[in-house]
Amino acid sequence: MMSSCVRRSMPAIRLLAIAAAALVAAWSGLAMAQSYPARPITLIVPFPPGGPTDTSARLIAKALAERLKQAVVIDNRAGAGGTLGIVAAAKAAADGHTLVWAGTSFAIAAAYGREVGYDPVKSFAHIGLVARGQQVLIGRLNLAHASLKDLVAASKSAPGRMTYGSVGAGSAPHLVAEYFKSVSGADLVHVPYKGGAQSLNDLQGGHIDVMFNTVTLLAPHIKAGRVKAYAVTGRSRDPLLPQVATIGEALNVDFESYFWMGLASPAGTPAAIVGRLSAELNQALADRQLREAMLQQGLEPAGGTPESFERTIVQEMKKWSAVIKAQGIKPE
After folding, report:
1. CATH architecture assigned to 135-251
2. Burial (Cβ within 10 Å: 0-12, 13-18, ≥19) of residue 18
């Protein structure tokens, strides 16, 4: 029969065993972080090469490679609105040698409440918010309405006639337009396209009236006088389009929307490695040349902690889930 002394000591023994296991895990993670990175790092970008998402990812990959003294290789995994690459990243080894470029679609896809193969919060270790940027509402040149206020009033006076294009049903520009409709009361009919180039061509050709897309993509067309700019979506004016008011300014409403991008790694990546990557990312984003390069792309460098990035993702999911539900939006 076990003595009472031995019985009393069992909880202490279990606690010691747990503490020892935790210590071993901590030392193991620390040792891994000290030798990290042991080989080239793969950065999965869930979109095709050449676009603004890819371009900004390459800027960060280069900066991290210089700081980590190891190659950071871009792996473009386009498909399923970005989901294909994100799922591949979620399934990768959690050793810090596979990262993913997590953008707005990272949260939007899951905000529909359907199975997408990953959970934006639970499937990843969040490293940091890299940057954010604004969208801009543009119209065809021969649209008669001089201001956003006039545009909204005209749409209300002729329900079902004014159209807006998007890069696809369920995309970020589609959701921003529906959010704008809910706040402003504008009456706009959605015309979905398969990408930004086609929607922009049709707007310039007079087949649709207005559209939202990123300042990065549309600023050159605005500056060249090919389209009208009505308003940007942020809290303050965009440095690339300082003459264009915000939606909040133009309509005296509470409106704010940004697209964003950040870095994440598979869930289970050792905290020491996540901390190292977060620190290196913040140092890279403090570099004047990198900041200038990002600003020229219409991006506002961000930075911050893994925890603050995770909060951003959670807030974005809640925001877009509410818009999706209220407006009855269906993905493609």
Report:
1. 3-Layer(aba) Sandwich (3.40)
2. exposed
Distance CA 148, CA 210 (A): 11
**Residue 263: which H helix or E strand, with range?**
strand 259-266
Class of CATH domain 36-133+260-327: alpha beta
Task: Give the span between the Cα atoms of 142 and 126, in whole angstroms.
Answer: 46
CB 216 within 8 A of CB 298: yes
* DSSP type of residue 170: T
pTM of the model: 0.86
Give CA angle at 60 (35, 50), nearest 5°. Answer: 130
Give per-residue pLDDT as tens, 193-210: 988 899 999 999 999 999
Q: Report the alpha-carbon distance of residue 153 to residue 176 in Å, rounded.
A: 19
**What are the residue ranges spanned by the domains of the chain?**
36-133+260-327, 135-251
pLDDT tens for residues 93-112? Answer: 999 999 999 999 889 988 98
DSSP-derived 3-state class of residue 137: strand
DSSP-derived letter for residue 245 is P
